[in-house]
Amino acid sequence: MLKNWLKIAFINYRKNWLSTLINILGLSVGLCVFLLIFIHWQDEKSYEQWIPDKENIYFIENGNAAFGIMSSSSYPEIFVSKEKFSEIEDATVYNDWGKEKLSVGSNSAYVSGSATIDSFFSFFPFEKVAGNLQNALSDNGKIVISDKTARLLFGDDYLNAVGKSVKSDSKVKEYVVTAIYKLPETNTVFKPDFMYRNPYMEESKDKWTNFNYKGFFRLKPGTDIKALENKLSKQMQQQDEIISKKWGYTLDKKNPATVYLTPISKMKLDAKSEGINKGDKKSIMILLGLSVLILALSGINLINLKTAQASQRAKEVGVRKVVGSSKSALILQFLLETFMICLAAYVVAFAMVELLLPSYNKFLSKDIKLIDPNLFVYTGLLLIVFSLISGLIPALYLSNFKPINTLKGNFARSKNGIWLRNGILTLQLVISSFFIICSLIIHTQVSYMMNKDLGFKGDQTIQINFKKTNWENDFNVNKYRRLKNEVARIPGVTDITGSVNSIGTGSANMSIVKLASDTTKTIQTMLGGIDENFLKFYKVKFLSGRDLDWKKASDTISGAVVNETFAGKLGYNPKTALGKDFFTGWDGKKKYKILGVVKDINYAGVEQAVMPIVYFNYDRNWIKNNLQNLQIKISKDDINGTLERIKEFWITKAEPGYPYDFEFVDKQFAKTYEKFQKQQTLFTTLNIVVLLIALLGLFALSSLLIEQKLKDVAIKKTLGADEKTLIWDLTKRFLLICATAVFISIPFGYYAMNEWLKDFAYRIDMPVWPYVLSLILLLILTFVVVSFKAYRATKINLVKYLKYE
Q1: Structural contact between residues 462 and 666, judged by C-beta atoms closer than 8 angstroms
Q2: Does the residue 538 lie in any domain?
Q3: Residues 599 and 725 in one domain
Q4: DSSP strand pairing (663-664 vs 461-465)
Q5: Is the separation of the CB atoms in 778 and 436 below 8 Å?
Q6: Same domain, 696 and 615
Q7: CA 775 → CA 52, 439, 476, 697, 778, distances in Å?
Q8: What PANTHER family is this protein classified in (predicted)?
Q9: Angle, CA of 311, 317 and 320, to the nearest 5°
Q10: Is residue 67 one of the residues assigned to a domain?
Q11: Residue after which a domain boundary falls, among 162, 193, 213
């Protein structure tokens, strides 16, 4: 019986080779897209699965009215809570401090380091290579290093590095190596090449508002997380009350301080703040949902073509039923045929994934490999379920044919199943229209962001970040001035400036400001410590008032220029804000006076609302410690030559021994919407895939249906119908279905895009033209595809189709 079924299956595959090929191609492309996005999702979910007891380890996040939800905590919040609440067994901190140069003799390594404490290794048990990780960071003079770093510093003798000294440019100039560890080979956000004890912890013990630590709790099994979050939140609210009374500002009672605990195993995707190298869960889930739609579209193609071919197999079904075949046997036979097509597509899809994976990894900046056995288990189950779902409808439809109807004449003229084919074709075109609408709106939003007035002119400007080395007084101002003077003498350099906050990187420092005349008015603001020429350098437009005058002591000591958002948050317009006094959280009770109001500058990307900012002299308080960059404008006459001269100076005189790195400011800002450009690229690619699958299915379906009408065409042609009339008669039904599908897709597209646009503080108004263009485009494509086959139908041999009439 099975042999007979297979023989019949291959006969039908060969007979309908075009539709079989289209089915396999469509399914393989749909499966390939789904698999690529699915493995990305699984890869993101696999972070921190290596950690023992991960179900009891939680990442601490803080939310308040002034700063939103933060990924950092204060020292007392972490360690006072450990002592105060019995549910907390242990606590630790971890801060990625970026790259730093370590050296041993003539060997040096420029590697990524972090600041932490001993308890880190009980939370995250890195594999020990040498030494002892317990008490390895008991004081500030100790350091632990990875085996990779040990090899760079000590060569082949790296296993004997324990007890030896390592020099650093950090606050502690020399460390003793106490242990060597091996980094986890699985996915993790914890990848420090070395770790030392955080040198600022002692001075942070009483600073409840110093949110500078990434904190983690290990909780007792069975802890009520919500109850503990409430206790921690109340503790922070009490501290806010104390601090607000001390500084004389009013708390926002509607948005009190809130503490969130996120499981470490879900931190990568589900952190409420930016987390630690947080993944973009929303985009992944959107793409996963869209890939499921594409897979469904492939299944719809299969169902539609199988039901369209039903008339060709009606007599076969009738004969089989007459000779005793049961309905269940027929269903199994047709399901087997569908499964064989799906299996072939499954194999082709994995081959396509292997070919595309290197490019996909490059696009995602990942290194995903097809080595997870669970992937094959999941996709194998998907194959079976998909085969059942997509095969069951045509199998039931075919098995329900009545022998008396199928054997008495030409079943091709029957109207059975037309409603099913039309309904499925409509669903297919609804999905296609949905993708076209969404793709056009995403493209419009991204183009809007890229062309938006950013409030500054950053052409031919590069930024170089220099290393903090002057730890004794903790100020970088002297290094900045020296480098500025020396770089200014390089031919091709036309101007230099500096600022605490870098354009394109968001806010480095935030504080609270309150109005002097009404202390109940408080806002959160960025600290805009800037050099004398910063606003002129970037051609920032003044809306009222004037720039800071560096020759006036009052301007440099207490003068300020604010942006229009700052003025608006305090209830003023650019003109009425002039002359107003305010107190800041960074300078105690000293008043600042507003001398000018400038147009908003986008620092963190155009999808986010512009923050209030106060521009002031960088050299008047502790903010000078955070000035760590040079922003250099170069002549357009010899850009490459100037860049080479700056590089030569930097690696030989400015910071020898460190890698040289710079970024064009325009390009640096462009990175803020790189995620959305990738979304645009992915959605456009998916849109092309959807249209390809839909049009292939439409072509195959129209071919089958038009073939069933060839005798009608022959009769009409004999009676004198011209080609245009015949083509219109054959295509108008498809065009009506297409128009209906577009109108059905409009509310779905509107809802989806309105939700997507909510992520943007600056967004387009919902345009109408993508919906109109989707209708026009699909009508044109449908007409072209169907009319091609219709035109071929008008060229038939009349004798062939009329000789039996």
Answers
A1: no
A2: yes
A3: no
A4: antiparallel
A5: yes
A6: no
A7: 55, 14, 60, 19, 5
A8: ABC-TYPE MACROLIDE FAMILY EXPORT SYSTEM PERMEASE COMPONENT 2, MEMBRANE COMPONENT OF TRANSPORTER-RELATED
A9: 160
A10: no
A11: 213
Whether residues 139 and 178 fall in one domain: yes
Asked if residue 277 and residue 162 are part of one domain, the reply reads: no
Number of domains in the chain: 4
- In one-letter notation, the amino acid at residue 251 is L
Residues forming beta bridges with residue 371, ordered by sequence position: none
Report if residue 233 sits inside a domain.
no
User: Is residue 717 domain-shared with residue 766, that is, in the same domain?
Assistant: yes
H or E element in which residue 463 lies: strand 461-465
One domain for residues 613 and 486: yes
Q: What is the pLDDT of residues 524-548, one digit of tens each?
A: 788 888 899 999 998 999 999 999 9
For residues 791 and 708, membership in a common domain is answered with: yes
The C-alpha atoms of residue 610 and residue 101 are separated, in whole angstroms, by: 36
pTM of the model: 0.77
CB 74 within 8 A of CB 208: yes
pLDDT profile of the chain (805 residues), mean per 10: 62 67 79 88 91 94 80 91 94 88 87 89 93 88 93 90 87 86 92 89 81 92 94 91 73 83 94 88 84 80 66 60 64 76 86 89 83 78 80 66 51 54 78 85 81 75 76 65 91 91 71 74 82 91 92 88 91 90 76 91 76 86 77 88 91 84 77 71 78 72 64 65 72 85 91 84 86 89 78 63 53
- Please say whether the beta carbons of 398 and 411 come within 8 A: no
Together in a domain, 374 and 472 = no
Structural domain harbouring 762: 427-452+673-805
Please say whether the beta carbons of 305 and 700 come within 8 A: yes
Tell me: the pLDDT tens digits for 213-234? 999 999 999 999 999 999 999 9
Read out DSSP for 243-262? HHHHHT----TTS--EEEEE
CB 364 within 8 A of CB 674: no
The number of CA neighbours under 13 Å toward the Cβ of 766 is 16
Q: Give the length of the chain.
A: 805
- In terms of Cα–Cα distance, which of 365, 356, 300, 306 is closest to 333? 306
Indicate whether 228 belongs to any domain: no
Q: How many helices (H) and strands (E) does the chain have?
A: 24, 22
Residue ending a domain, among 615, 641, 672, is 672
